[in-house]
Description:
The chain is of the alpha+beta class.
Amino acid sequence: MIASLTGKIQHIASDRCIVDVNGVGYEVFLSTEGLSRLPEKGGEVFLHIHTNVREDAFILFGFDTRAEKEMFLTLKTVSGIGPKLSLAILSGMQVDSLCQAISMEDVKGLTTISGVGKKTAERICMELKDKVGNLQSTTSEVSQSAATPISGGNAVMDALSALVNLGYPDPVARETLAKVKQQVGGTAFTELKVEELIREGLRTLA
Length: 206
């Protein structure tokens, strides 16, 4: 199964994009939010991927954060909700807001999302209320990490800028580089070149 893709944007449509990976174009469906964060045509992108295999199709769904992918997979566990509706829900509400709505059993708020009726909203709240706590913690930690500066010199700042230009939100990029620092150690981290930092960062995000 394809778990992630790194390549160049070849085409962007209303609900999908094509990522060119070494000459092979992969059609990837994304949420509205995910599409809005893609770089322009020709830009480098990294996407977390969920591969949905059916008898008549092999469909890739893409996400620029792990939290969004985890929410997508969690929504798919709800009775009557398939991958397309899961993606539509993510298009209608960001992950942190969605977690809050589910935990508070905000059925009315969920029904404002296109394709989600009252019964579906009630099922989402009933089946996921006890499952969204971990996702809320993840998105909260990512947001808080933005307040912590990443030290290491110009190379680190350049790598941070490169990850953001690849489409990763600043908090996610910072958290990723912080994890790289933990993995390689503080001294080795400061000696890494920009391209090495980017490579290690993408490996961590995969």
